[in-house]
Design goal:
eight-stranded parallel β-sheet, Diaminopimelate Epimerase, Chain A, domain 1, six-stranded mixed β-sheet, globular, 20 helices, alpha/beta, 30% helix, TIM Barrel
Length: 595
């Protein structure tokens, strides 16, 4: 025996976590049955299979065994488009949302909310009294608040009420003065300063306080810039906490100014994000920086790798406005035009000149930036398709994963063009719930409204579409994203809007997991529960895929969110701007949002 050589034992494999005891929805391609257990080691999934094998091969003295107790385990949700700072904004300024996300019903309640916020700690320190989320489609008055309404909130401080679309807003008289808007002010290109109909003032008419698109942007910048700096810095951290509470393990900062992109990185350097943040710079600023002969290097700093939880991926373009605000650019007139507009009113482009749009796409392709384009109306989609077609012909074929954000009114022929050009449609599917009735009766009419967010057309062409929340336009509610795709049930009239566009629960789940990972070029490390991928997971009260009644999806709750094997919701500790100890944001930092 002494002469016999003993075999060297195999290294002992011990998982950090083993999950079992619930429905495990892997979303993996070709998965024929649901596994019983998942094992995680060092933030990575190391086993997916039977419960007995997980315990036999991966259980050790330091392994935590988690019994799901009948709940569901899914891949962590991936935000295909949203605004991280905007999510934080929702938690910082006055909540002007209607039910189910708030309780504003009329202009009087808007006024009350703004007055109350002005007396909060942040409100007292803010230069502007500011609130977000009113919706004229829901207000009893069926109109926007005006300068006169907001003068009743304050005549000593500027007041800003932001429409839920974040494409319009209203200011009081002091707000108009702060912006320099008067009867002498021309409407800016791509925007409208609405005028009083009962007051004659040359040459353009006296502003009534309601501002659209590029006319609204300076008001947003002034209002956000007037928040206390500590509140501005804290928007990103608050946004990440809120997103994690809805099961998101990857989020987006979609359309940051170059200054805000720098601030995001500096904040992350001081306190790394617990979930992944993918950032996109404003295409107009990034393009201008490249074309500036004095500029050095890549102004975006695009990279596939995360640093302190942040990476930049490309640029975001803005080609039109909001259908619910009736500023989106359509090829056919609105069902009912806004007050003062002719019957043939079709909205308008943000960038009227096609060559400017092409320049932005061309520059992005040359720089290797992924392109996201805000396109709601079918006329803006035509403009985008034209630019992508021309830029692709110049640059040649490539795997660019260009994304059409929202694509609310995409026609079937445009979905065909998306497929041919390999453009990924990312639908804001919650429009079917929040504004479905408004679309039917006011925006598009019954026939066109039935095909908003046309996910079924995309599936019929075997396209890996994604869906998003566009927060702060809506809460970053992952469950609402799923429910709105499967049921397409409207908020007020409770009708099914275009039942032929409904998709299965599994397809809806894919739109915020594996498809969204593909959109980000991260499908090899995220988006499904498979060995070798990050342990980005979410525990739900029920599995949306196996519920007998699709109407029950809306009642599912997020129980826990896990990023790389670590629980990030419920939060173990609260991370706020007060914890920042290191670099401070640039001196010119001001938070801006354009959805």
């Amino acid at each position: 025996m002494g002469d016999q050589q003993q075999a060297v034992p195999e290294p002992y494999e011990e998982a950090d976590l083993i999950f079992h005891g619930g429905e495990i929805e892997t979303v993996a391609a070709g998965a024929s049955e649901r596994p019983e257990a998942v094992a995680v080691k060092d933030g990575v999934i190391v086993f997916v299979g039977s419960h007995s094998e997980a315990l036999g091969c991966w259980h050790g003295p330091r392994t935590t065994v988690r019994d799901l107790e009948g709940r569901a385990l899914l891949p962590g949700f991936i935000d295909a488009h949203g605004h991280l700072g905007g999510i934080g904004l929702q938690a910082t300024i006055a909540n002007l949302l209607a039910a189910p996300d708030g309780d504003v019903t009329d202009i009087a309640s808007i006024q009350q909310k703004l007055r109350a916020w002005a007396e909060t700690e942040v409100g007292r320190e803010s230069e502007w009294i500011i609130g977000f989320g009113y919706d004229d489609a829901i207000l009893d008055e069926r109109r926007h608040p005006t300068r006169d309404d907001l003068d009743e909130v304050s005549t000593t401080r500027p007041v800003l009420a932001i429409h839920q679309s974040f494409h319009l807003g209203a200011v009081n008289t002091l707000g108009l003065a702060a912006l320099g808007y008067s009867s002498d002010t021309d409407d800016p290109e791509g925007g409208v300063i609405r005028r009083r109909e009962d007051v004659v003032a040359e040459p353009h008419g006296e502003p009534d306080g309601v501002l659209e698109e590029t006319a609204f942007n300076p008001a947003s910048a002034a209002g956000m810039g007037g928040l206390p700096q500590a509140a501005q810095i804290g928007l990103f951290a608050k946004g990440a906490q809120s997103a994690a509470s809805f099961g998101f393990t990857t989020v987006q900062e979609g359309g940051a100014t170059l200054a805000n992109l720098a601030a995001l990185r500096e904040i992350a350097a001081a306190l790394p994000f617990e979930i992944d943040v993918v950032a996109y710079a404003r295409a107009d600023q990034a393009t201008a920086a490249v074309l500036d002969r004095d500029a050095d290097g890549d102004p975006v700093g695009a990279s596939p790798e995360y640093v302190n939880g942040v990476r930049a991926a490309g640029v975001k373009m803005y080609l039109d406005g909001s259908p619910q605000g009736r500023t989106a650019w359509l090829t056919k007139p609105y069902e009912k035009p806004p007050a003062g507009k002719p019957d043939d009113y079709c909205g308008y482009p943000t960038i009227p000149h096609d060559e400017v749009v092409l320049r932005q796409v061309r520059t992005a392709y040359e720089q290797g930036w992924q392109v996201l384009a805000h396109v709601n109306g079918d006329a803006s989609i035509d403009q985008f398709i034209g630019a992508v077609t021309a830029a692709t012909a110049e640059a040649g074929p490539g795997d660019r994963r260009t994304v059409a954000i929202h694509a609310q009114t995409a026609r079937e022929d445009q979905i065909n063009d998306f497929a041919l050009l390999r453009i990924i449609p990312s639908f804001f599917s919650m429009h079917t719930f929040y504004w479905g009735d408004w679309y039917r009766k006011t925006v598009l009419g019954e026939e066109r409204a039935a095909n908003i967010s046309p996910a079924r057309w995309a599936l019929d062409r075997r396209m890996a579409y994604t869906s998003h929340h566009d927060a702060p336009v809506a809460l970053p509610n992952s469950i609402a994203i799923l429910s709105s795709q499967v049921t397409r049930r409207t908020r007020t009239d409770k009708v099914v809007l275009g039942p032929e566009q409904c998709v299965s629960a599994l397809d809806a789940v894919r739109s915020i997991t594996i498809n969204a990972a593909h959109q980000y070029f991260e499908q090899d490390r995220k988006g499904s529960i498979e060995v070798g991928k990050l342990a980005d997971l979410v525990i739900l009260s029920a599995n949306p895929v196996t519920l007998d009644d699709p109407e029950e999806i809306q009642h599912i709750k997020v129980a826990e969110t896990i990023k790389a094997g670590r629980t990030v919701h419920p939060a173990i500790g609260v991370r706020t701007a007060a914890h920042l100890a290191g670099p401070t944001p640039p001196a010119d930092y001001q938070w801006h949002c354009s959805c």
